[in-house]
Structure formats: structure tokens, C-alpha cells
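fyi for ur records
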Amino acid sequence: MEYTHKIKSPVGMLTVSSDGKNICGLWIEGQKYFAKTLRKDVLEQNMPIFENVQKWLDIYFSGKEPDFMPPLMPKGSPFQKSVWNNLCKIPYGKTTTYGELAKQLEFENRDKRTSARAIGGAVGHNPISILIPCHRVIGKNGNLTGYAGGIDAKMTLLKLEGIVY
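which gave:
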């Protein structure tokens, strides 16, 4: 069974999903790929895991770095999960590029070639927005390239972290 809960935020209404123990999804209403990994048989219900996410988001949206992370269980391919794992390593208040992420994965995979385009596809399909910080990935020239939640949301999230574009 999968459960959902809605949370209001400065970037719009958020839908959070959980298997009861882990966060499986967090989407900004109207974003590209909204609830793509969400099961069809879901139950909207408040649970302790959602209260934990609400606390994390309250801290984050107050402009501070939360000192904890709810347990995450994103649904995706092994490649996507490796990209999302690397997104979690981008420090609060910092950005990286698709190319830098590709180089990091090449290093981790013993020089197995990884393209920035493949990284972009995995980043774009991140099912746990904000908590897995795909908004911290920018283009190689510092451009604010695509964000499934919209460029305005990306700018808001970066600004909260002290990064101004």
C-alpha cells in the first residue's frame, strides 16, 4: 500500500507519498512527471512519516539546512538511483553541473562513460523533489536549465539556500 499527503509550500502544493516507512515521492503540483511513480491504489492519510517530512520542509523553507533526512526510497532504475544518490551529496547552498555529475559517476563506475544528457534525464525524473536536491543542478555555463517543477520554483529553492540568480 502507498499513502499520500498534501503539504502547502512556497513553491506550491506538494504531494508526498510513502510506503508507510519511507518517502517514495514528493512532487510540486503541476510539475512535469507529476506522481509518475505513484501506485494507482493509494490512500490519502496522515502518518508519522509525513509529519517528519513537514518538519523537514518547515526548517528548509525557513531558510535553514535541516539536520536530519527522512528515510527515502525513490523508485527508478539502478542508473537513476545512482544519479539521485549523487544529488544527495550536493551540499546545501551549493550547485553542480550535469557534466560534473557525469564525471563523478564515471569515477564511481571505474571510468564507464556517462553523458551529461543521460544525467539530465535521470535528474529530470527525480521522484522526490526538494529532499533529493535536483534543483542544485545547473547548466555548464551557470544557466538555470530545466526543472520539472518550473524555473520559478528552482529559483525560489536556490534563493532559500542563499544562491541568487
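The domain at 2-61 is CATH 3.30.160 (Double Stranded RNA Binding Domain). thats all i got for now
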